């Protein structure tokens, strides 16, 4: 049946410049860390196959530029996202303070159908630095913010050491899946003949 | 600016002194000159904003061509070259308050500085910083609109430049254009944003991008027209792969453009001349 079709889950990674978005994505997808990443301009794109229960999904990950200047160009990248990952650096207070801006900007530009329940995930990255001695944002503080925004799942990661990265992305995939409307999965049962173009497009997508 | 800041610090000291003698007089803190002021004219606010830009420049200068010893590493050469890049970007940001510093400017500055710094004539090489600054300003005078957020949706901003590329492709290879933008829904912004804002410096190795820049900077049509032709030629050169590809494989291909014979690329680009979409 058409539900065998491999499903796409779109994930956007946001956060201040230099918090480690590119490193996290590469650690997850390629299991590699490098000190040599250039600044991301626009958005980079990677995919990874993930298995949830007994089904295979393609995670489509968009790693975005951190500078504020690029935000107004975000709408093309944000649209259709199933999950948004907010990253900050536990050693830089400002990157944590800005999470709220990133979250609001995303909701504004992506305009998801149910913004209250749109799945976000927060990652506090670079916990390896200086053995944790230079951190300025406590886990407690971060968790409190996440709780206040509708219980956003929170992970502390080190893209360098590969700490918690796999677990975080597994959670990201699960949450992205929750966001995916059911009709996408059980498409053949929900075709609405009166529905017009949208369904037609979809069914033609399934045939091939 | 530094002088004004000193003056303002002077005010603060005065205030502290008066404070020591009794109640702090309100009139001592005037004109919104205090560290928490958000007023646009406040030197403190300007100071914090500049600190933020300098930090951003610092971060990006450190990640400019991390694979090249000329730019990165612990050598004194790399250190002094980074210092020069930093100076140029900071001065540019201060002289252009409407744009300031935008990520990616470092990538455009790097080839200019590299060429001047490696001038075989030492008498010229010592002025690399000043020469690179002058040329950087010159070059950006033609491309600065791409960096300006306020112009993103105008007829001169980056979105409009990307549409020109799309038009150019449509004109020269309608089938490829249709497959890319209609069938596989690859929005040109997903790949061409970086191609255009960085003048192709991240798509090819350093030597190849210098080769392309020679063409961009020497063409009588000007860098922007020439750049769009080269971008369009890049698409045409991989058309076979693109026509066989879906969204994912096409976007991956265009974001990681394969190594190419640059002479051939420029030859193809040159043949698109005289029929620009702009």
TrEMBL record, chain A:
Location of the protein in the cell: Endomembrane system
Where mainly located? membrane
Report the membrane topology from the UniProt record: Lipid-anchor
Q: Which CDD domains match?
A: Rab7
UniProt GO MF annotations: GTP binding; GTPase activity
Recorded hits in SMART domains, A to Z, give: RAB, RAN, RAS, RHO
Q: What InterPro entries does its record include? A: P-loop_NTPase (IPR027417), Small_GTP-bd (IPR005225), Small_GTPase (IPR001806)
Q: Which GO terms describe its biological process?
A: protein transport
Q: Which Pfam families does the UniProt entry name for this protein? A: Ras
Entry keyword Lipoprotein: yes
Per the record, its GO cellular-component terms are: endomembrane system; vacuolar membrane
| UniProt family annotation | Belongs to the small GTPase superfamily. Rab family.
Q: What is this protein called?
A: Ras-related protein Rab7
Automatic annotation (TrEMBL), chain B:
Which Pfam family is one of this chain's hits?
Answer: RabGAP-TBC
Q: Which domain of life is it from?
A: Eukaryota
Identify the SUPFAM superfamilies for this entry.
Ypt/Rab-GAP domain of gyp1p
Q: Which InterPro entries match?
A: Rab-GAP-TBC_dom, Rab-GAP_TBC_sf
Q: Per the database record, which ranges form the Rab-GAP TBC domain?
A: 34-220
Full protein name: Rab-GAP TBC domain-containing protein
- Taxonomic path: Eukaryota, Viridiplantae, Streptophyta, Embryophyta, Tracheophyta
